[in-house]
């Protein structure tokens, strides 16, 4: 069993970062648009760390803090929809042809931006990277004012949030369900 680290994190300078996790594999967004692959390693019984590139982070016993070798400390945040939508993570694709297949969303900053690509009107958005069940990757954004996800690179696909943010209904008729949060 590995600690469940997926979520939004804040470093000691107040910058948001995120971790997406599958088993012992993690994908880190360090908050400065640097995406790193990493692995959770058990160094002693029930003592874990993250190894990502040339960085090592020791995970505390409650799995809510990571102290990195460069002195940076990440603290795991609970979901705060008024600050960020918390869409990052693994999603199960729910359509007849895709049962048991998964997709992924990564929030880049987790800090709202106030404009979108090609928009004349400033709106409150969070930039996203999305990966569908066929491993196609695209940039998109979450729009706070409408609670919609917009993915211009996928034929202007639009997703609407339902079930307290645990379901996305897409304009092409498919839907994604948030993977059950549990220890892995």
Care to describe what's here?
The protein is an all-beta fold and 184 residues long. The protein has two domains: 7-76; 89-178, no CATH class. It has no helices and 16 strands. The strands form two sheets. The protein has an eight-stranded antiparallel beta barrel with strand order 1-2-3-4-5-6-7-8. An eight-stranded antiparallel beta barrel has the order 9-10-11-12-13-14-15-16. The termini are close together.
Write the SSE topology:
Blueprint (H helix, E strand, L loop, with lengths): L6 E5 L4 E7 L2 E5 L5 E10 L2 E6 L2 E5 L5 E4 L4 E4 L12 E5 L8 E6 L17 E7 L5 E7 L4 E4 L5 E6 L4 E4 L4 E4 L6
Antiparallel strand pairs: 1-2, 1-8, 2-3, 3-4, 4-5, 5-6, 6-7, 7-8, 9-10, 9-16, 10-11, 11-12, 12-13, 13-14, 14-15, 15-16
Class by alpha and beta content: mainly beta
Query: Which segments are poorly predicted (pLDDT under 50) over 5 or more consecutive residues?
Result: none
Number of H/I helices: 0
Number of domains: 2
**Strand adjacency order, main sheet:** 1-2-3-4-5-6-7-8
Alpha-carbon Rg, integer: 17 Å
For the sheet with most strands, the description reads: 8 strands, antiparallel, barrel
What coarse outline follows from CA principal-axis ratios? globular
Helix-residue proportion: under 10%
Proportion of strand residues: over 45%
Tell me, rounded to a whole number, the average pLDDT. 79
Distance between termini? 6 Å
Report the order of strands and helices: EEEEEEEEEEEEEEEE
What's the count of strands?
16
